[in-house]
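S2.1 Query sequence (TetR/AcrR family transcriptional regulator)
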Amino acid sequence: MPTAGQSGEVPAPSKRADAVRNQQKLLAAAAEVFTTSGVDAPIREIAARAGVGMGTIYRHFPTRADLVVAVFRHQVEACAEAGPRLLADADSPLAALRQWTDVFVDFLVTKHGLANTLQPDSSGFTALHTYFLDRLLPVAEQLLDAAADAGEIRPGTQPYELMRGIGNLCIGPENDPRYDPRRLVALLLRGLQEPQPPS
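Output structure tokens follow.
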């Protein structure tokens, strides 16, 4: 019996990898458009940003709700994957925690717009919120534990408290250009730091 390679067919995993890459590119473009133009932005704007036809978007995401949910999940994954990478690459666990909170704030600014399109009492909202916590709480915990073990922050900060606090600081900046949640998040992180003895 001939294998896929012997029959001259292109292996399916290669096609799937291309499709996944294209879908990731499309979701990244949609996230950018949602951030700048809101979740009600025209689909043609997303298609232009992604460099694809509108038919491609509708083929992957038949409804706007499908696209919104996919963007939400895509951004959760990007935020979750950033934590371990930053911890491995940063100069210190505290630096990694700071960089990750920047990524998290970027996500939250988009997430609030996405969340507004979902009804909090719907099962879809509940499932996404559970997914969000399941993926990101362990990342926040890993970063907090590493910074505490390095003596850079006080031990005992709960990951949910940190994420909830940052989330609350990110509410509403789009309505007030004078408000920058990053400044407040930086103050919050400074408050976690272990006081250094005078030199």
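The radius of gyration is 20 Å. The CA atoms of residues 121 and 127 lie 11 Å apart.
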